[in-house]
Amino acid sequence: MTGVSRRAALGLFGIGATGIGVGAGVLIDRSSGSVNAAGAGQAAAASTAPVTVASWAATRGDRYYIGHRGSGDVYPEHSLEAYLGALAGGAACLEISVGMTSDGVLVCMHDPTYDRTTTAKGIISALPSTVLRGIRLSLPQLGPAWAADPTVQVPLLEDVLRAVGGRAVLCLEAKNGNAFPAVLAAVQAHGLKNSVMIKLGYNSARIAKAKAAGYPVFAYFGATADVTADRIKTLAGQLDRTRDCLVIPTLDDDNLVKTAVETGIPVWAFAVHRRSEAAHFFALGCKGIVASSLKYVSTAEPSATADTWSFGAIAPGEMTKDPSSAAYAPTWSEDEMRLGAKGSQHFLTLGQLGPVAAAAASYTVEFESSWPTLPGTTDDNMSLVFGHADDAYYQHRSGLGTGYHAILRANGSLELFRHQDGQPDGVQLGSTAKTPAPTAGQWMKFRLSVTPSDITWARTDVAGATISASDRTVRGGYLHLGRSSTDGVLAFRGLSVS
């Protein structure tokens, strides 16, 4: 299956004869790299009243979501596809970063360089816009399907404003200070002033300039180390609680979050990847969640009952320890997904399958697994983790989360454990079943069956490899797959929940 058909089959966007139709009929012309201005981007906005900051504030309620870099966990960040994907997922507000090339062209990019997110190298402001013709966005953690033709381009701000202007509130940040006047001019030229918030760092001198120009402000702390109680209070003193927002990173210090909430300025938390994170910050009083997988984070239902690894693209809700980092990226090969990060355990949250619809009743998980490269220690294991109440990240002996882990060690031992939040050691259920030790490249089959009272864990490619235990301690609906080793490569395929 080609990269194009893989992406189409995943439903990320539809394929057209001359380009890719994304969202509500917007056409990206791959020959020029621009949005068809006569297409549906403006037509859709013109058919209804444009979304403004005021209209959104009047209808969004006390808990709402903002697209982070579009929806950057599942689309190439700050691409037109990411922005339109977020809109299709229900976003009414998008966060958009803007850089400027040496010849004054505004492009949507987070970093000051092309290095991390594209196939090019170099400082954006030091290179002319002609380099855009020979590069594409490249984020390995999203999967190989995104590298196939037609490739995803660095979008011009002009094209983005045409495509999404008036369809959502746009929180625009000029990453290059010299681009600030040009960004405001582009907003004015498109008649979008009432639909834009200006995004600025907590200590930016341009906060006063943006407010003087009549724009509401998205004022943010970019790193946890920047956040102090005094800085929160100083920033809040510059903001208007009816128009502006105070944006904080996902802090571990709940007291600082509460300090921000107590200012009365609407507090937004970023970047949120998991439903469990969103629930935590909402509970602390935050109003907005700046979500990197907006459709997934803003809903509570499973979107699949089987893996989509053969399509070569990460699924919404499928998350490593850090979904935004290539360091923990899975790799894909034909119909399998591989976990091979070196130096640490490597686990994948299967949020797209959760919560399992029958978690409180009976369900079965089946899959195949193989070690293309065996771990260095035979006591290390392949794990299926289940029974978790939420999608918080799991890895062995972290003491985080309550549930079960069903494992096969590299020496062939099949085992079943229950683990408790706050306790690194698990409790073994049933007896160890001895099976043949896996060999490199050998595919093995597994089945987990859960009922309200019993758990059965089996390796089904060999006879007599079954563990059964009566245990009804917990019955949550989120799953994880992974390996406890800090080396080796572990592959999975054919996973389904029924």
Summarize the structure in words.
With about 500 residues, the chain is of the alpha+beta class. About 15% of the residues lie in helices and about 30% in strands. The chain has eleven helices and 28 strands. A nine-stranded mixed sheet has the order 5-13-12-11-10-9-8-6-7. Strand 3 and strand 4 form a beta hairpin. Helix 4 (about 80-90) runs parallel beside helix 5. The radius of gyration is 24 Å and the shape is globular. The chain starts with a helix and ends with a strand. The model is unreliable at about 15-45 (pLDDT under 50).
Which characteristics define this entry?
498 residues, alpha+beta, 17% helix, 28% strand, globular
Concise account of the structure shown:
17% of the residues lie in helices and 28% in strands.
Largest sheet report: 9 strands, mixed
Shape: globular
Beta percentage is 25-35%
Low-pLDDT stretches are 13-46
Report the C-alpha radius of gyration, rounded: 24 Å
Strands, count: 28
